[in-house]
Design a protein that fits this description.
Layout: H1 8-17, H2 20-25, H3 27-53, H4 58-89, H5 98-101, H6 104-167, H7 170-201, E1 210-213, H8 214-224, H9 226-231, E2 235-240, E3 247-250, H10 252-268, E4 274-285, E5 288-297, H11 319-325, H12 331-341, E6 347-351, E7 355-365, E8 391-395, H13 399-410, E9 415-419, H14 422-431, E10 436-440, H15 448-458, E11 464-468, H16 473-481, E12 486-489, H17 494-504
């Protein structure tokens, strides 16, 4: 059946709002326009009938009037269908009002709005898809990078262990042990980066308020990087304002982490140059010191187009950077998040080939009394303390972990009693007196959670320190809730273990 030509008024609306290409792509829209066109044609017929009816006699008028009524009912039927079609197409609650239903041009406008809405919705979906693909690509790059970064020190550890077994000479042993220790420390730092980022993302980091000497902290950090600086023929300098007030209250561990990240990056991307740590006093008001910390290098610099990228998680300025210099791409992200917790932020200036300056400003309360902590307690230069007289119950099921913990603590003259699971620990705890319990959380027969819960029923005071390889906040929070005093994540630093044992050894 041949379709009637498009009504001239409808054709104007179509030309105004729709393109031929868009019409060709949608058969449903063509059908819809055909229905609208029929309505326009019917409307013209109505007008023609009205004009003719004035010239007819009463009998003819009655017949034609009936026909007009039928045509009007048909028109209303078509309009009702149009409204229902628009409702079916609409998913943004743009249902026409009664006034719009009686106006065909209004209906067409509503349809046009629906088309624009769907085009916008499709555009947003494409943008969301692009963002998701970019995020997935970043995660894939990060996993690939982490695989490389983790496997590299693991390869060295496994390979050197084999070489040491084969060569079995004192000279080879000393040389390989140094490399082995370096590889293990790199692996440990990589894992710590991931765990720290995870803690920050989950909002699980709470800042301490500890008295410490900021000047000593900076000098110790610089000293710890001396060997690293010499490897690339770099000079490492510390410049501290004579007016700087160093005795402050904050979290020295997290501030140390921030400075370590910045100095490590500066040395990593600088060769045969200079790295400076600059401290400038800016203000002092109401016992609060405001000062600026800068880490300045003469390294490779950063391209302007990469300025924002370096603060995105799992990202470095360039993929080539990851391959050449290594690293997780989390250091600056962690630094920025930690500074946010301190009501500060990281900023930087950089020029390709000339270097970079990363800086931040802190406002911290000063110490108003003479009581200070030893800043060494959070550094590698911390001197391990002899703990002779301390009796510890070690609750651990892994043979290797038992051997390592026993050897480390025996070096400090600690008396160590062993329980291979929670049930044995309960028996030994009932029969003996211990100063501290080191409790593994995951064990057969009875785990550390159940054992701790049973111990706390009879003894609320004995310090219980969890030794756990799990960094899941659900597990650790649960441990704190049932009465564990604090936890140490495996693999642990012996200095950290010594520090915490000394903390709870009240009799020493």
């Amino acid at each position: 059946m041949k379709k009637p030509p498009i009504h001239r008024y409808l054709q104007r609306q179509i030309n105004k709002f729709l393109t031929p290409e868009f019409l060709e792509q949608s058969s449903e829209l063509q059908d819809f326009i055909a229905v609208v066109n029929q309505t326009y044609i019917n409307y013209d017929k109505d007008a023609e009938l009205f004009e003719q009816s004035a010239k007819l006699n009463d009998r003819e008028y009655t017949v034609i009037n009936l026909r007009i009524k039928q045509e009007l009912e048909r028109k209303q039927f078509f309009q009702a269908q149009l409204v229902e079609a628009i409702k079916q197409l609409s998913d943004n609650n743009s249902t026409p009002t009664n006034g719009e239903e009686d106006d065909l041009l209004g209906l067409l406008n509503i349809l046009t709005a629906e088309i624009e809405f769907k085009k916008q919705y499709q555009t947003e979906l494409l943008e969301a898809k692009s963002v998701a693909e970019t995020a997935n690509e970043a995660k894939s790059d990060f996993l690939s990078l982490m695989s490389h970064e983790l496997r590299t020190p693991l390869n060295a550890i496994i390979g050197l262990t084999y070489i040491m077994e084969q060569e079995n000479t004192l000279e080879s042993l000393q040389e390989n042990l140094g490399t082995l220790k370096h590889s293990a420390q790199n692996l440990f730092l990589l894992i710590n980066d991931i765990l720290d980022f995870n803690k920050i993302e989950a909002g699980k980091i709470e800042l301490e308020k500890i008295n410490f000497n900021f000047r000593d902290l900076v000098l110790q950090i610089a000293k710890s990087f001396e060997v690293r600086a010499n490897e690339n023929l770099n000079q490492l300098e510390v410049l501290i304002d004579d007016n700087f007030m160093p005795n402050l209250i904050s979290d020295p561990l997290r501030i140390s982490q921030i400075l370590n990240n910045l100095v490590s990056n500066a040395l990593k991307f600088t060769a045969n140059g200079k790295v400076q740590i600059v401290i400038s006093q800016e203000a002092f008001l109401n016992k609060v010191s405001t000062f600026k910390v800068e880490v300045i290098d003469t390294g490779i610099g950063i391209e302007k187009e990469n300025y924002q990228k370096i603060f995105k998680k799992f990202s470095q300025a360039d993929n080539k950077t990851s391959r050449k210099y290594g690293g997780t791409g989390l250091g600056l992200v962690i630094t920025q998040r930690l500074l946010h917790l301190m009501d500060s932020d990281i900023a930087f200036e950089s020029e390709i080939g000339k270097g970079s300056n990363f800086y931040f400003t802190l406002s911290l309360p000063i110490v108003t009394n003479s009581q200070m902590i030893d800043s060494h307690s959070i550094q590698e230069s911390y001197q391990e303390i002899n703990l002779k007289g301390l009796k510890v119950l070690l609750v651990e099921d892994n043979v290797i972990n038992i051997k390592i913990a026993q050897k480390i603590m025996q070096k400090w003259d600690v008396e160590v009693d062993l329980a291979e699971n929670g049930a044995i620990a309960l028996d030994k705890f009932a029969q003996n007196r211990y100063h501290i319990i080191l409790m593994d959380l995951s064990m057969p027969v009875m785990d550390g959670y159940e054992a701790t819960t049973e111990i706390r029923k009879t003894d609320k005071l004995i310090p219980i320190i969890a030794l756990s390889a799990s960094a899941s906040f659900g597990y650790l929070d649960r441990a704190l809730q049932i009465g564990i005093n604090e936890y140490i994540i495996k693999p642990f630093n012996p200095k950290e273990l010594n520090m915490k044992l000394h903390k709870y050894a009240n009799f020493l």
